[in-house]
Amino acid sequence: MSHRKNTRGIRCAATLAILALACWGQETSDPWAPAELLLPAELAHTVQSGKAPVILSVAFPVLYRGRHIAHAINAGPTSKPEGIEALKTAVAGLAKDADIVIYCGCCPMLKCPNIRPAYRTLKELGFTHVRVLSLPANLHTDWVSQDYPSEPAATP
Question: pTM for the complete prediction?
Answer without folding.
Answer: 0.80
